[in-house]
């Protein structure tokens, strides 16, 4: 049985990724930071596999080490690591004083350092995969490409994720592939809190005239794992053509 570990697996995108892999025969390991109830709810929707939930903030080295030991003892190896955990907060780009040092550090630690820490921790278990190449998928954002997003630090963190993808793809080949899946605006429950004018602007600038949803991102991640098996170091956008505008 193939195994996939999804950080931030209880969120809109993470839960869709978990379901997609479980439906296709993977054992799924869901990790979460603080919302155990939400993670357990996602677990309850996964069937036909040896699935697990584990509380492990990616910026906590002891928790990550405990997670690695858990995966080693229960599964013995890892085939796919999806670095999906991420945070942000809305701050207008021109309001430099509103983006605090504390938020800059939190965003960079979770979105970049946390992903790197997971790859560093699970490199050996990924190398035990029986697949031709194990896989790391970093969930990025087109904010890292064109510099428009929830705040300046978020954009910078996703650009760092894409740079990390390229660097690690080179460093870990041929045994481990590394790919970024880079969504545009993804619709979810949190969408209700956005300014309608912002949502209209996003829609007006999306040639396919709809927002992505969690399943769109999950389909891209699964395709990278099962179909695009000769791809590494790539940034694969899931944005409805947003970058064309």
Give a quick set of tags describing it.
globular, 7-stranded parallel sheet, 44% helix, 7 strands, 245 residues, alpha/beta, 8 helices, Rossmann fold
Q: How does this model look, in words?
A:
There is one protein chain. The chain is α/β, with parallel strands linked by helices and 245 residues long. The protein has a single domain, classed as Rossmann fold (3-Layer(aba) Sandwich). It has a seven-stranded parallel beta sheet with strand order 3-2-1-4-5-6-7, sandwiched between helices. Helix 4 links the parallel strand 4 and strand 5. Helix 4 runs parallel beside helix 6. The longest helix is centred in the middle third of the chain and has 27 residues. The N and C termini lie far apart (43 Å). The model has no long low-confidence stretch (mean pLDDT 95).
């Amino acid at each position: 049985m193939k195994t996939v570990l999804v950080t931030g697996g209880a969120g809109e995108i993470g839960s869709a990724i978990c379901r997609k892999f479980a439906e296709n025969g993977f054992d799924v390991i869901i990790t979460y930071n603080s919302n155990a109830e939400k993670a357990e709810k996602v677990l309850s929707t996964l069937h036909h596999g040896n699935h697990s939930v584990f509380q492990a903030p990616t910026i906590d080295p002891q928790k990550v080490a405990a997670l690695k030991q858990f995966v080693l003892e229960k599964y013995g190896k890892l085939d796919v690591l999806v670095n999906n955990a991420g945070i942000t907060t809305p701050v207008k780009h021109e309001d430099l004083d509103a983006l605090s040092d504390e938020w800059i550090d939190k965003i960079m630690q979770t979105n970049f350092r946390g992903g790197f820490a997971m790859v560093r921790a699970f490199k050996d278990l990924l190398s035990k995969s029986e697949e031709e190449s194990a896989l790391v998928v970093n969930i990025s954002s087109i904010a890292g490409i064109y510099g428009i997003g929830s705040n300046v630090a978020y954009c910078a963190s996703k650009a760092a994720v894409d740079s990390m993808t390229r660097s690690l793809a080179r460093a870990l080949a041929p045994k481990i592939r590394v790919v970024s899946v880079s969504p545009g605006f993804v619709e979810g429950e949190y969408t209700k809190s956005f300014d309608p004018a912002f949502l209209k602007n996003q829609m007006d600038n999306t040639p396919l005239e709809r927002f992505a949803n969690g399943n769109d991102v999950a389909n891209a991640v699964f395709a990278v794992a099962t179909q695009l098996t000769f791809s590494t170091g790539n940034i694969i956008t899931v944005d409805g053509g947003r970058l064309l505008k």
